C-alpha cells in the first residue's frame, strides 16, 4: 500500500510540473513574447483555460501529502516555511493577474496585472526549484538564501520557460508572438518531459525516505477507498479540457 501511494505522489508531482510548467513558463515570457496588448491577450487566452485544471494536480498533491505522508508534509512545510509563504504569495499574485487583467478597461490596469502575472509566474518557478533543492539537501536552515537553492530555482525557471515557449508555438502556430515557428505535439510532449525532469529526479532520489514516512497501512487503506473513485473524474476532466481548448479559436474571456 505504501508503494501505491508513493506512486500516486510521484505521478501527481511529475504531472504538475509537466502540465502547470507551461502555464508558469508562458507567464514568465509574457513581456518577451507579447510585445503588444493584443499579443499578450492571445498568449493569456491560449493558456488560460488550462490553468485551473493543471492546479488541481497541486491540490491533489498536497492532499496526498497530508493524508498519506503527514509527518513528511509537516517537516517540509515547517522546515521550509519562508519558501512556502513565498510560493503561496506568488501563486496568488499569478492567479490574480490572470483573472483581473480583463475585468476593467484601460491600458494601465491591464499592464499592471500583466506585470503581476509575469512576476507571480517567475516567483512560482524559482520557489519550486528552491523547494526541490532544499528537500534534496535535507531542509537546510537558510533555504531562502541558499546559493544552491537559487541555482536550482533558475534551472526550474529555465525549463518552465522552454516548456511555455513550446506550448505557445504549438497552440499559436504562425503567430508573430512566437516568431512564426510552429512546434509539433511531439515537441510539446518533449518539453513537458524536460519540465518534469527536476521533479522526477527528486522523487527518485528520495524514494526510500518518502516510503519511510508513510502513514500506517490501515490509514492508507481507508484513503484508497475514499480517493481512488475520484481518479477517473480527475482524469476525465483533464481530457475534456484538452479536447475542448487545445485547438480551434483562442478564448477571449481572459
Topology:
Layout: H1 2-28, H2 30-33, H3 37-68, H4 70-79, H5 81-100, H6 107-136, H7 147-171, H8 185-205, H9 207-212, H10 217-227, H11 231-245
Helix pairs in contact: 1-3, 1-6, 1-7, 1-8, 3-4, 3-11, 5-6, 6-7, 6-8, 7-8
Structure description:
- Helices cover 79% and strands 0% of the residues.
- The chain is an all-alpha fold and 254 residues long.
- It has one domain.
- The chain is globular and about 55 Å long.
- The chain starts with a helix and ends in a 9-residue tail after the last helix.
- The mean pLDDT is 88.
Quick description:
This protein has 254 residues and is an all-alpha fold.
- Strand/helix succession: HHHHHHHHHHH
The number of domains: 1
| Tally of strands | 0
Largest sheet: none
Low-confidence stretches: none
Task: Name the beta content range.
Answer: under 5%
Report helical residue fraction. Answer: over 70%
Radius of gyration: 19 Å
Descriptive terms for the model:
254 residues; single chain; globular; mainly alpha; 79% helix; 0% strand; 11 helices
